[in-house]
Amino acid sequence: MINKIVPTMADAVAGAKDGMTVLLGGFGSVGQPNALVQGLIDMDVRDLTVVANNAGGGHVGLALLMELGRVRKIICSFPRSSTSTVFEELYRAGKIELEIVPQGTMAERMRAAGAGVGAFYTPTGVGTKMAEGKEERSFNGRRMILETALRGDIALVEAWQADRWGNLTFRSAGRNFNPVMAMAADLTIVQTQHIVELGELNPEHIVTAGIFVDRVVHVPYGDPAL
Amino acid sequence: MINKIVPTMADAVAGAKDGMTVLLGGFGSVGQPNALVQGLIDMDVRDLTVVANNAGGGHVGLALLMELGRVRKIICSFPRSSTSTVFEELYRAGKIELEIVPQGTMAERMRAAGAGVGAFYTPTGVGTKMAEGKEERSFNGRRMILETALRGDIALVEAWQADRWGNLTFRSAGRNFNPVMAMAADLTIVQTQHIVELGELNPEHIVTAGIFVDRVVHVPYGDPAL
Amino acid sequence: MTPWNRQQMAARVAQDIPEGWYVNLGIGMPTTVADHVPLDREVVFHSENGVLGMGPKPADADRDPWLINAGKQHVTLRKGGAFVHHADSFAMIRGGHLDLCVLGAFEVAENGDIANWATSENDTAPAVGGAMDLAAGAKRLWVVMDHTTKDGRPKLVEKCGYPLTALAAVKRVYTNYGVFDVTERGFLVVDLIAGMSIAELQAKTGAKLHLPA
Amino acid sequence: MTPWNRQQMAARVAQDIPEGWYVNLGIGMPTTVADHVPLDREVVFHSENGVLGMGPKPADADRDPWLINAGKQHVTLRKGGAFVHHADSFAMIRGGHLDLCVLGAFEVAENGDIANWATSENDTAPAVGGAMDLAAGAKRLWVVMDHTTKDGRPKLVEKCGYPLTALAAVKRVYTNYGVFDVTERGFLVVDLIAGMSIAELQAKTGAKLHLPA
């Protein structure tokens, strides 16, 4: 019997190692796999590269991971927010490396990794700082730059429902980067609000199929803060 | 009020012109927008390039379109089937051009067109006839070839449910190429088995959002032949 | 002569959005444009984080903690709305499926170049978000912004000084003084607040203003 | 000495597929492999046309007209199955998410090259389907085929003569005479039908056979 559901957080994050690249789902306060990040914190892995849309807020999840000095580099589209003080202090002090990627290019680079595309040409960023050092070429008269696939060693994902095969649904805007990152890592770990029986999810409504998921841990934390 | 539902087949296929590239959904007997193809036949458009997984079967839909001499070229992955006699005769007689594309490359090239990717690198086809004349390059030590986006002037799509905004669901294996092609054409025309009220489709379960759809026509033809 | 206030600018943009368009509104002033599109004129608002078909802002008590827009504000979903993941959401943007994107900007050049994401080459933690994808991907890019900076420097310019977001992307600019199309000749005055002369406006503008023929 | 029949070959492949693998079975003999995996050993079968989690063939009366596999045969869906569109289905294939693909072949070379889609450079209407994607994309490619052609020519060869499907992709070959791993040295005999000698087998094989050390 396939059973990707693991009983403890330690089981969920087992195998995380220093120096890994971690894809971190979530956008704003919604769909953030904060319990899994706490699991990484408790494992004391260091020197991480984190790919996430934002650079964390307050003193939880990614912000706490950074505050504890575990993150060497962050790849994101929008590090600034009203509560991103942890990141900003580290950045100003030169204690964290930052790679800014346009949000759509970031999503597409991970989707490419998940879909076996090595690199692709996109018009986003042509003629801007983002194009520096990148190859440019025209297709159908449109200038484009070459962007490479962005793969993670680990993806941390938050889901709404999961079954023992690892099939997932998401809730509302909690979907965001989660299904994309689930495709793009060697090891995809999911925290889910609800565990459901196999067969309970309608096969037409599954958003991320279990083929992209390695482990599921039950974290029924409720709603994100308003 | 947005209303993409059109009353007649003539309204649905209006604007189709000689020489256009038509993306045609369906795989096997399932999800074939045959009524829309009949609509094209009735319009007497000619010199078409058709992108479809198969080269038609029997004497309906694509096969009939070809039999009537309206198709100049077909781009597909698998033209052979037990009932593809129309195509095979035309092909042997040199009356139709054939471009064979690996099935996944075909899907990805249309997805690229729909997602604003000009071209991408894939390992599929490296070292084979499919790589002839294509640029090759390695990413992370893997040999890949460059494939360009494949766009249609028109996409013909079969859906299970549709609302007046053009939101779609599909049924079972009827999904296949339909959602991919819906993204990849200038004009996306849908035949749907069921018309539903706006708001009836769960926003978590919509497979193709109305943004990709231009027109919807109600064709409740029932089940594909067994 | 009274410049348009922010509400009037947003209303002026909204007036030009026809029913049936798919529209992404940038963070800040552009977001308020939606408040000026009557609900019976169906415009489908898109947000980068995978929300298509956003409706009006909810009352505080009705907020859904799971439903936010790209600006991290709570929003609602209209009948006909849909949720998608980030790659699909940006396929909508980058694949040219949005009829319109409205962004704010630091500068717009007369050839349509836009600078709206960083104010210097060495900005502390620059943040681009989806601006470059939107500027390059939408069928039309409109900018809504003040005509000048707080200290009076023009924001419509011959050439952007700030780091660029996209090349030759802007089609139209709405400011507190008027509406300007980006044309082959440069900025074309389409609308102007009551009582303002072209000479006055030209003095506040960093590129030549053209008048309709 | 009795060569394995098609059922035995399929059963021999099935025996090597562990629970939990995601597997795509090619059209023809590979498809029959599924019949030899007991249902309580959960293997998730994938079909190119967007079906993940296929179950056994239905009785004729129970066929669902909407549910077919890539070979256009009617199939069933197991609990836990899911439907996806073609780009997502091939993302599973091309992104390296399948543990195994089993294909038929015209020829397999000792370096793992496979030829299985066209029998000549000028084939009438050649048909590739998803074979190139599967061969290049799956984590493991196994081939199940007769050891020789009907007229006795070997199908395990030093170098393929037919147009290639993929380079150095095959990891293992199952024939009616045995099982062969593709290794750095070439074909390694892993299993052999009862009563067959290596010398006999070598005579039917177009490349050198190696024995485990």
Strand proportion of chain A, as a percent range, falls in 25-35%
Based on the coordinates given, report the CATH architecture of chain C: 3-Layer(aba) Sandwich
User: What is the CA-based Rg of chain C, rounded?
Assistant: 17 Å
Q: Outline of chain C, from the CA principal axes?
A: globular
Radius of gyration of chain A: 18 Å
At CATH level 3, the topology of chain A is Glutaconate Coenzyme A-transferase
Average pLDDT over all residues of chain A: 97
Q: Any idea how many domains of chain A?
A: 1
Poorly predicted runs of 5 or more residues of chain C: none
SSE order of chain A, as H and E? HEHEHEHEHEEEEEHEE
Query: Can you tell me the residue ranges of chain A where pLDDT is under 50 for at least 5 consecutive residues?
Result: none
Write down the oligomeric state.
Answer: heterotetramer
The rounded distance between the terminal residues' Cα atoms of chain C is 25 Å
Q: What class would the helix/strand composition of chain A place it in?
A: alpha/beta
How many angstroms does the end-to-end distance of chain A come to? 40 Å
Task: Please tally the β strands of chain A and state the result.
Answer: 11
Main sheet specs of chain A: 8 strands, mixed
Number of H/I helices of chain A: 6
CATH homologous superfamily placement of chain A? Glutaconate Coenzyme A-transferase
H/E series of chain C: HEHEEEHEEEHEEEEEHE
